[in-house]
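seq as requested:
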Amino acid sequence: MHKILELTGCPIGAGARRFFHPGKQMMMVKIQPGEVYVTSERELIATGLGSCISACVWDPFIELGGMNHFMLPFGDSDNIEGWDPTQWRSNAARYGNYAMELLINTMIQQGAVKSRLRVKLFGGGTVMGKQANIGEKNIAFIRNYVQSEGLNIVGEDLGSEFPRKVVFDPMTGKAWVKKLRGYRGEVEAEETNYKRRLANEAKRDDGDSAELF
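struct tokens:
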């Protein structure tokens, strides 16, 4: 069983962006910013990260796992500078909070047990410039969140100035990370557009080597 969801709550067809990876000899699913994917099938989950964060979570007992991809929805630099990472239940952090809760709750609904969950964290780079500081805020948010929830972190690759490609095996918990030194501008543009869309939605609501982890 597999399920892919947008953080807006709109489901996407589970076959979207699924393709066969000849190097790994298995199917791979690519998720985009604002999506969560949970599966118990023999397949990989991949995404590209700049300042965004992906949490890779799995229950090794039942071989079920998933990945999310989120950016905190700050409208401008003043919001970012004034944000307190300990207030992860606030409206300012609702997308990051929702991404984690949607991933974990979906896994529990499919038979996972929270105390058995293992977590690996990736992303939070400074690809949007140090003045934005989004990557650092995302790292502070996710570390506070997992500590508050009592989740077991077994690996992480956070920070740095380069975007990443992350590939996750949800059955074994293995994850491969490749730093994308030549794609910084492209990832920055994608995340800037995504950040702008999140800010607009909030306004409407309110009125080149791989590393194994």
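Confidence is low (pLDDT under 50) at residues 6-16, 73-80, 87-93, 201-208.
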